[in-house]
Amino acid sequence: MATYYLAVDIGASSGRHILGHMENGKMILEEVYRFENGMVKKGDELCWEFDRLFKEVINGLKKCKEIGKIPVSMGVDTWGVDFVLLDKDGNVLGNTVGYRDSRTEGMDQEVYKVISQEELYERTGIQKAIYNTIYQLMSVKTKHPEYLEQAETLLHVPDYFHYLLTGVKSCEYTEATTSQLVSPVTKDWDFELIDKLGYPRKIFQKLIMPGTSIGHFSEAVKNEVGFDLEVVAPATHDTGSAVLAVPANDDDFIYISSGTWSLMGLERETADCSKESCALNLTNEGGYAGRFRYLKNIMGLWMIQSVRHEINDKYGFAEICAMAEDAKDFPSRVDANDECFLAPANMTEEVKDYCRRTGQKVPETLGEIATVIYTSLAECYAKTAKELEEITGRTYSRIHVVGGGSNAGYLNELTAKATGKEVHAGPGEATAIGNITAQMLKAEEFKSIEEARTVIHESFNIKIYNA
Ligand code: LRH
Asked: What domains, with CATH codes, occur in the chain?
């Protein structure tokens, strides 16, 4: 019987349980369970449904039992920045607000009253994004100071699921760095900054590194799913897991972790917190084994996902890609990083409005809208690649696109054309693979990251698009 490892990978639009095991030197994946995710309105706040999501986590575990494939360990990864505050009894304080909610509006200015944007970057190396934990906490402090007073613990989303599974409160480093409250030098919470902002020190747990064992299932979970399991922290920030699964060991490439977001950048040994880097709004997120992900957050396929939702998911992504290709000469472009696309009431209308506002031809058909989005994304990739080359003073000859968005063939073609670089697309399940890889490294199935990446390269199909 094979030794299985389980990744529970929860993205902004769906979650999945994926089992991984080694067979004849290759990594084999099996998706055992999948469920929907998305933010929902609670009153006037955009929230995550953590209770429902946790039930889905349990359902997927039961499915493992049902098919007789019980793993030796599991780990959860999710998106970054979001968190819950727990009171002394472990109950969540307030709504489980998500990062697209407008509660952070104006909170950047509140933070900058305490510390300038430049100094904040110098201390944390994290790019300014209005939804970072630092701004969300400022919103809690401003609008619900009672929650901060009652709070005993802050847990980011994957930490919260690990807590529900084991009863152990832990705080994993890669996810914590997306808070903009961690120092890239000490790789620990920046308590001086935390004090300045007036956030209570005690809610920030000691950080653990990916690969750390968190504990075993609680009695309640054990009884419900019918087995016990060790919970091992992967790089719990999904991007951290995805980048661990980039199928290459040289340094001549830029990666794009493509899903709801497109995270485009490099892996580096040290953080660049310089003024130049700050001006380019590049981030230094903490990664596996103390490495840094030096990248830019680009709005990504969220724009296409939203447009698709607005027509009740009538067409699949491949069909939308084909329609976009048919309308490929449509000339208008949008800034894929404009905040107006973060949570518009209607994405289709927002794209049209943007074109109208900027004096460009307004797209009307689905194909035209999609082509505007895909082409604008590809152009944004090209600009970001140039910026990365400029700041590192060297060139990169290929782009590795990993994650679900690597299946968007048309976008890959446009990316190759816009950047002039070879695009290597795949694996699509990079995040789950990275999650499993961290568990396998801990279990010594692999001796090094290099060995793991070689195996990943040999195990999964990678499609090459020429410039
Ligand atoms: C991608 C991601 C990204 C950002 C965003 C909030 O899923 O983790 O790196 O942090 O979500």
From this structure: 5-232 (3.30.420.40), 238-467 (3.30.420.40)
